Amino acid sequence: MKSEDKDTTNNAQKFSRRDWLTHTAKLGGAVGAALSGASIAKAATPEPLITEIQDWNRYMGDGVDARPYGLPSQFEHDVIRRDVSWLTADAKSSINFTPIHKLDGIITPNGVCFERHHSGIAEIEPSNHRLMVNGLVDKPLVFTMQDLERFPRESHVYFLECAANGGMEWRGAQLNGCQFTHGMIHNVMYTGIPLKYLLEEAGLKTNAKWLLPEGADPSHMTRSIPMEKAMNDCLVVFKMNGEALRPEQGYPLRLVVPGWEGNMWVKWLRRLEVGDKAWHHREETSKYTDLLADGSARRFTWTMDVKSVITNPSPQAPVLHGRGRTVLAGLAWSGHGKVKRVDVSIDGGRNWKPARVDGLTLSKSLHRFYYDFDWDGREMFMQSRAIDELGQVQPTKNALREARGENSIYHNNAIQTWHVKNDGVVENVEIS
Ligand code: MTE
Ligand code: CO
């Protein structure tokens, strides 16, 4: 040690950057030796990426003005929304999926929030946007965006899940990736006005029982929302994750209906009509209804029930490192409130272990869970099972089919199974 000390002090001036890197890499190895056998082996291998000067060490990069609105690194080019071309006839009335296997934590970045539109993206200049409140109110009102900015605001993190998320998986394992099986979901921090302030401003009549929000896009998207929900926790928002809503997500104004299915979260919100009964919606009877085995229908199933999925490993995110230390990561959520517990199994549901729920646990928001374990290299059947604060437990696929039959599309909250083969390749499977 003495001679090394001497070396560095006496010859400091003569040290090149390369010598310095080699030197510290050796020291790093020596320190590591005391801690763990595994890290010495790595540090002792000659590593040109540490010892050789690279271009990005040598040349100055872009200055501060080169990227006025920053984008992710070019090396993250595969972290994008994707669609399934055969799912819908036309991209204007279609859906794409959030790359949840590439994200971490609980917040979805704005640029990769899945999109669902019935008639394309409306491009609206905010100075031309109006929100009308009419129907069973004391005084019908029309707000400009400027008017809306004068109401007290709040920020909340909520997930939005399309009722059709996982719809293709009802009859059996279909799509090879959690982006496609579970990616009709996003979770952002919204800033906006509690809806009740706008309704109170207009003054509700005593027979005001239902609300009909309407979008400004050509689909004139409308949905009936019971007044108790509207007055409870709904928001009229203009910001997501701190910046203006993206056009895809309803710029300049959208409705947020926490915990309830995505189709009620009307984008490009232009009108709120107050009524005394539910409106009849073609989609609600023909589509947003769960058809049961006996031919009857489950209607007005608005809350998204407790659900979870393992995002890593998953078909688009195989295990590349082989046996040993492995991190299993996943997402859990419930439209009824917080997720109380998540269990994971690597043997197809025979044995369950509690996962570690990490970071923020917020009501009606995604939760992040991890399970850190040593993989013995043998094939695994990975499952996760969430339990929410009401004590509701995520069902198996068979239990869900027994309750609802084979004909459903909507509200699939069943347990997902990933088959991790011994070479680390992962496939979407069902086990009985
Ligand atoms: N609002 C309008 N105006 N037009 C639409 O087509 N689609 C709905 C809902 N709100 C829709 C809409 C559906 S079915 C869903 S799942 C969500 O928006 C999707 O929201 P996102 O595009 O932000 O993911
Ligand atoms: Co939807």
Topology diagram in text:
Layout lengths: L1 H9 L6 H19 L1 H8 L3 H4 L3 H4 L35 E2 L20 E2 L12 E6 L5 E4 H4 L5 E8 L16 H5 L2 E10 H8 L7 E6 L9 E2 H6 L2 E6 L2 E2 L9 E3 L12 E7 L6 H5 L3 E2 L5 E2 L8 E6 L11 E10 L5 E7 L7 E2 L1 E3 L8 E9 L4 E9 L8 H8 L12 E4 L5 E4 L3
Parallel strand pairs: 3-12
Antiparallel strand pairs: 1-2, 3-4, 5-6, 6-9, 7-8, 7-12, 9-10, 9-11, 13-14, 15-16, 16-20, 17-18, 17-21, 19-20, 21-22, 22-23
Helix pairs in contact: 2-3
Can you characterise this structure?
The chain is α+β, with helices and mostly antiparallel strands and 432 residues long. It has helices at residues 2-10, 17-35, 37-44, 48-51, 55-58, 145-148, 178-182, 195-202, 227-232, 282-286, 397-404; strands at 94-95, 116-117, 130-135, 141-144, 154-161, 185-194, 210-215, 225-226, 235-240, 243-244, 254-256, 269-275, 290-291, 297-298, 307-312, 324-333, 339-345, 353-354, 356-358, 367-375, 380-388, 417-420, 426-429. The strands form 6 sheets. It has a 5-stranded mixed β-sheet with strand order 4-3-12-7-8. Strand 17 and strand 18 form a beta hairpin. Helix 2 (17-35) packs antiparallel against helix 3. The radius of gyration is 26 Å and the shape is globular. Bound molecules: ligand MTE and cobalt (II) ion (CO). The site of cobalt (II) ion has 6 residues, from loops.
